[in-house]
Each structure stands twice: as C-alpha cells, then as structure tokens.
Design a protein that fits this description.
mainly alpha
C-alpha cells in the first residue's frame, strides 16, 4: 500500500522516528492506527455508558414503563 500523507505528516513521522519512539515509518503508522482504534473503542464505550445512564434515569424517574420478571414470565409462559 502506498500512501501520500503530505509534508506536515511526513515531518511528524520523521520527528517521531528521530526521537526514538519508532524505528521506521511503518511502525509509526501502525502505532498511530492502534492508538486511533483504542480511542474509537473508548469513545464507543463512553457513548454506550451514557445511553444506559440516560435510560436508567428514565426508569428511576418513573417516566419509563417497566415490568417485573414475574410479569414477563407470565406474559410469555416461561
């Protein structure tokens, strides 16, 4: 795969290599992608947590209709 990143990104990659954080361009890109993937996963987890908390607030406030386990079992014959 050939990628043209442009001068600013190539300079950043060079600086990272010069500082010894990576041995070559490929290593820099792999580390960056791994960090980006981790960031996305953390953001997804944060969004799920936020959505669950909002739903729980609805339940606690009584605005969301809930049913007991017994009610569900009776309804579906479990």
């Amino acid at each position: 795969m050939n990628i043209n990143l442009g001068a600013p990104y190539e300079a950043a990659i060079k600086k990272i290599i010069d500082k010894g954080y990576a041995g070559n361009q490929t290593e820099v890109i792999r580390q960056a992608l791994t960090a980006y993937e981790r960031m996305l996963e953390e953001e997804e987890q944060m969004l799920v947590h936020k959505a669950v908390e909002q739903e729980m607030q609805e339940v606690r406030s009584g605005r969301a209709k809930t049913k007991s386990l017994d009610e569900i079992e009776k309804k579906y014959g479990l």
